Amino acid sequence: MNEFFLGVDGGQSSTTALIGDRDGVVVGSGRGGPINHVGAADGRAKFMQAIESSLGEACKQAGIDRAKIRFRSSCLGFSGGPADKNAIVSEILASEKTIVTHDALIALTGATAGEPGLITIAGTGSIAYGRGTSGESARAGGWGYLFGDEGGGFYITRQALRAALRFEEGWGSPTSLRPALLDATGAKNINELLHRFYTTEFPRPRVAGFAKLVDQAAEDGDQAARDILTEAGQELAAIATAVHDQLFDDGDKVCVAYLGGVFHSSIVLATFRRMMEVVEGNQVRPPVHGPAAGALIESYRGAGILCNLSNVPEEKA
After folding, report:
1. Are the beta carbons of 139 and 104 closer than 8 angstroms?
2. Cβ-Cβ contacts under 8 Å for 137 (sequence gap 6 or more)
3. 166 secondary structure, DSSP code
4. Are residues 199 and 157 in the same domain?
5. pTM for this entry
6. Residue 95 lies in domain
7. Which of 6, 127, 5, 135 is nearest to 76 (CA)?
8. Secondary structure (3-state) at 315
9. How many CB atoms lie within 10 A of CB 206?
C-alpha cells in the first residue's frame, strides 16, 4: 500500500497543497484561498476553508479519498508562524506526523531543494532566513512595516511617496514619481494620497503594489526611483549578509536564493547580486522549487526520508 506525504504553503494571497508518494513523485496539487489572521472574526473559518479546498483539489488529482486519507507525514508552513494554528490543523488533518512551521523555512527548503543555504524574501515586507550545514538556523528582518521590512514593497512605496512629497513641497528634486502615484490612485495631490494611505482603503499589500510604479519610473530614467531601488537592493543584501555571517564562513559554498515580487526589478536584483557575490563562495540564484515543494520536502524529512522530488508543478506567485 502506498504512503502519501503532504506539503502546504499557506500565505496571505493563496494556499498551495502538494501530495507526494513514497518515491518523492508529486501526484497531486491544489490551490485555495489566503490564510488570513486566525484571530480575526472570520479568520478561523477562512483558514479551514483554504486548507480544505487546496487539500481537496490535491487529493482529487491524486485519486485519493479525502475523507479516508491519513498521511505518513505532513508539513504546513504559514505566514505569521504556527503559534495559533496547530490546534486547528490537528482538527482537520489526519497524519502520523505533523509539522506546523513558518513560511520562511519552507521557502528556504524549496529554494535550495533541502540543501543548506539562505533565502531573502521581498514581497510586501522582507526577511532573510538560512540553515547551516549542521541544521542550525538564523534570521534577520521581518519585523513589520513600522520597524523593519527594509527593501520590501511597502518600504519602496513609502520611499517613493516621501520623494514625491518633498518635491511637491519644494524641497526635493523633481521626480516623475509624483504624477505616477497620482495617476494610479486618482488623488489630487500627494498630501491627499498620504492621508488615503492611512485608511482601510489602502491596506499594506495594496500600498506595496505601487512599488511596480517605482520600477517603471526607474526604467524610464528617473534618478530618484533608481536611487530608491538601489537602496532597497542594498538593504536586502544587508539582512542576507547578517544571516550568512551567523551560519557560514567566507569561502563556504553557499546558495543565496531570492524570492518575491520586489526581485522582479532588475535594479534591485542586480544590486543584491553584486553585493552578495562580493563574498567568495556565495552563489546567487532563483529558487529550485517553490515554498509548497519546500513544505513537502520537510514532510519527508520529518519521516526520516531524504529524497529528490520529481513531477513538481510550477508554483504560482
Report:
1. yes
2. 105, 129, 130, 131, 247
3. H
4. yes
5. 0.87
6. 4-113+289-302
7. 6
8. coil
9. 14
